[in-house]
């Protein structure tokens, strides 16, 4: 007899067949491309899907950043609330229905609270001022959906997530499309529809790793029950585990993920606050079960808490983990993890929040250890930032005034605050929420309150800083020393850059001499006859703006962005700005990226591209990205423009 379940292979457990991937257009495209290059792809479900997953793995190896951004764009269009018609115009009828829905929900809340008098004042339709309020809420909710979905895609497309098989990453992303609001009591998610305004679920790396373990354990052992502990289970626990068994068997990602989120929250509440402890070493090739057993029930949010991920990590590298003592002086609570590959530091993680930041009390403990290993210099800025953040936090809690330098740091005017987690340290937003930007702005910008204009109408000859939407001529006002579209997030960064004086070969050689990574597509673009350099050196002024800065609250096309920038007195950059800017911007923050607004150059595939500058764990990069005229860019995408020269006469 055949086994009840096929063993897990590259295409995943047998429940993955419900997606019928072999019939999808993306699989058809992957198979077609491989066959054109002479690959022999079996005309079977398994063969076709394996070929597609292999193409995904190749794309992540060869052009990770571009691939992830393209997936993010496509899934934002498919998964998030759609507020546009097919021709790109606003879908006013749908927006009206959503506004009415929000209005009715607000009325229902009043009814449930017994607020009859207030309810009578509402009427059946929102008033004009309420209409605008709800309309803004809808667009804000769409932005939040894009942000929360983007966090998942960025992580699942990152090098850290390479420990997960492709089938599991596909399952997670496809499941997100149907996951609405989390019900903690039921241990599940409500169904998401095309009209759902709820953000996408929070990303918990540990819950994700435990979910994969559950699927694999179900395939091999047919149950998640630990029979050695069967007598210790309560009736409620046995009932819940029976439900989880069924969820794992049918591939119910939302149910399993919500279950492990609940467990982690319970474990987190039980964690101690002690800092004394000791380091423990888990060498490369050691038993992953030993490592995982020390993380069970500790709510670290580390993906290493999953046996499958831990196994892959210990094949490639080693761990040093700091455990704090319990009341019996036993080191049991993991607080800091240092992961090394080939003796070099790959990651430093803590247990503060879902993004694994270091708790401020453990920064010195972590630094003392990681400074022993090669690669520690990459963590020096993180260490300085966390120490400075600790000083700022203590001052704010003690109601002590912050200095100008401390405010500049907190508002990230000169540079992003870098922590040890995956994303921005949540403490930065927490501390900013306790400040009054209008009181702090004059100190940060070194001017008097009356020298800051918060609207175009307030600008006069004495204005030194403007904070508000951009308008025509704003960049031609020499007395404006600082411009923000919002404070502090919307800082408009102006720079000076020298271009010219170097030919193509010199530019490429200089990039290599400086240790800057450049991918093959960029080299192809620089070899194009359309990529030219000027003989004489020239100083130009650059302006870096986001899509949102340019006045677009939602996606905007390349063509729209370029046209709007022209209205504000900005021009496209010469193509050589890409490599010149890369050579200049050597202190770019980790995981920061922006594009060069330029006339597109063709890549090897013939698609129009622009240069893309970023910094990841591998260092500084000069890459490229597709920039077709009709391509949509999300509101946080940033472009570097050239400030148009204006003659004194004009």
Key attributes of the depicted protein:
Mannose-Binding Protein A, Chain A; 20 helices; 16% strand; 20 strands; globular; alpha+beta; 650 residues
In summary, what is this structure?
The termini are far apart. Helix content is 41%, strand content 16%.
Descriptive overview:
- By secondary structure, the chain is an alpha+beta fold.
- Among the domains are: 92-149, no CATH class; 436-484, no CATH class; 493-643, Roll (Mannose-Binding Protein A, Chain A).
- The protein has 20 helices and 20 strands.
- It has helices at residues 25-36, 45-79, 92-112, 116-122, 128-156, 166-176, 205-221, 235-250, 253-269, 288-295, 307-316, 363-370, 380-397, 404-410, 426-432, 437-444, 504-513, 520-527, 558-567, 577-584; strands at residues 179-183, 188-191, 277-282, 317-325, 331-341, 344-349, 452-453, 465-467, 482-484, 493-499, 517-518, 538-546, 556-557, 570-571, 593-596, 601-602, 608-616, 619-626, 632-633, 638-643.
- The strands form 5 sheets. Strands 10, 11, 12, 14, 15, 16, 17, 18 and 20 form a 9-stranded mixed sheet that branches. Strands 3-4-5-6 form a 4-stranded antiparallel sheet.
- Strand 4 and strand 5 (331-341) form a beta hairpin.
- Helix 2 packs antiparallel against helix 5 and helix 10 (288-295) crosses helix 11.
- It is globular.
- Residues 1-9 have low confidence and may be disordered.
Describe the sheet with the most strands.
Answer: 9 strands, mixed
Distance between the termini: 87 Å
Number of helices: 20
CATH architecture classification name of the domain at 493-643: Roll
State which percent range the strand residues make up: 15-25%
Write down the CATH topology of the domain at 493-643.
Answer: Mannose-Binding Protein A, Chain A
């Amino acid at each position: 007899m055949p086994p009840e379940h096929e063993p897990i292979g590259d295409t995943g457990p047998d429940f993955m067949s419900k997606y019928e991937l072999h019939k999808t257009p993306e699989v058809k495209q992957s198979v077609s491309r491989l066959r054109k290059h002479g690959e022999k792809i079996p005309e079977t479900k398994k063969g076709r899907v394996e070929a597609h997953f292999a193409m995904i793995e190749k794309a992540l190896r060869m052009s990770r950043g571009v691939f992830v951004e393209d997936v993010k764009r496509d899934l934002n269009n498919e998964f998030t609330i759609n507020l546009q018609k097919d021709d790109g115009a606003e879908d006013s009828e749908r927006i009206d229905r959503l506004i009415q829905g929000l209005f009715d929900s607000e009325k229902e809340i009043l009814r449930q609270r017994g607020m009859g008098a207030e309810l009578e004042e509402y009427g059946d339709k929102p008033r004009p001022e309420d209409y605008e309020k709800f309309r803004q809420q809808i667009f804000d909710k769409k932005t939040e959906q894009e942000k929360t979905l983007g966090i998942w895609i960025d992580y699942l497309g990152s090098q850290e997530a390479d420990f997960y098989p492709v089938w599991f990453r596909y399952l997670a992303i496809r499941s997100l499309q149907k996951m609405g609001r989390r019900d903690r009591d039921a241990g599940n998610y409500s169904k998401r529809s095309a009209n759902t305004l709820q953000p996408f679920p929070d990303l918990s790396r540990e819950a994700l790793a435990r979910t994969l373990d559950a699927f694999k354990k179900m395939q091999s052992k047919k149950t998640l029950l630990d029979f050695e502990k069967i007598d210790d289970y309560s009736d409620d626990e046995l009932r819940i585990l029976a439900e989880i068994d069924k969820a794992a068997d049918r591939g119910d990602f939302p149910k399993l993920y919500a279950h492990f989120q609940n467990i982690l929250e319970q474990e987190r509440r039980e964690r101690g606050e002690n800092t004394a402890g000791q380091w423990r070493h888990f060498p490369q090739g050691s038993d992953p079960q030993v490592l995982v057993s020390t993380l069970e029930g500790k709510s670290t949010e580390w993906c290493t808490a999953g046996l499958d991920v831990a196994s892959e990590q210990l094949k490639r590298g080693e761990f040093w983990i700091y455990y704090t003592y319990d009341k019996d002086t036993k080191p049991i609570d993991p607080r800091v993890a240092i992961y090394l590959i080939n003796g070099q530091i790959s990651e430093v993680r803590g247990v503060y929040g879902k993004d694994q930041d270091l708790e401020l009390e453990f920064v010195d403990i972590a630094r003392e250890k990681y400074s022993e290993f090669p690669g520690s210099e990459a963590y020096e800025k993180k260490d300085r930032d966390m120490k400075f953040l600790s000083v700022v936090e203590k001052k704010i809690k003690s109601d002590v005034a912050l200095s100008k330098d401390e405010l500049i740091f907190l508002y990230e005017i000169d540079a992003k605050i870098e922590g040890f987690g995956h994303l921005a340290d949540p403490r930065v937003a927490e501390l900013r929420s306790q400040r009054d930007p209008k009181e702090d702005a004059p100190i940060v910008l070194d001017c008097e309150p009356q020298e800051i204009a918060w609207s175009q109408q307030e600008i006069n000859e004495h204005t030194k800083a403007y904070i508000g939407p951009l308008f025509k001529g704003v960049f031609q006002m020499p007395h404006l020393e600082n411009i923000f579209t919002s404070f502090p997030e919307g800082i408009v960064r102006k720079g000076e850059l020298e271009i010219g004086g170097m030919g193509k070969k010199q530019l490429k050689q200089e990039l290599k001499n400086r240790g800057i990574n450049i991918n093959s597509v960029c080299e192809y673009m620089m070899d194009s006859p359309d990529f030219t350099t000027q003989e004489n050196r020239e100083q130009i002024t650059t302006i870096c703006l986001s899509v949102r800065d340019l006045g677009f609250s939602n996606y905007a096309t390349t063509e729209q962005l370029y046209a709007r920038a022209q209205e504000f007195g900005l021009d496209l950059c010469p193509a050589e700005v890409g490599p010149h800017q890369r050579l200049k911007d050597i202190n770019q923050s980790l995981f920061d990226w922006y594009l060069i607004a330029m006339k597109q150059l063709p890549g090897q595939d013939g698609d129009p591209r622009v240069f893309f500058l970023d910094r990841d764990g591998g260092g500084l990069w000069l890459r490229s990205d597709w920039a077709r005229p009709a391509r949509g860019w999300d509101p946080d995408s940033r472009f570097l423009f050239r400030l148009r020269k204006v003659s004194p006469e004009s």
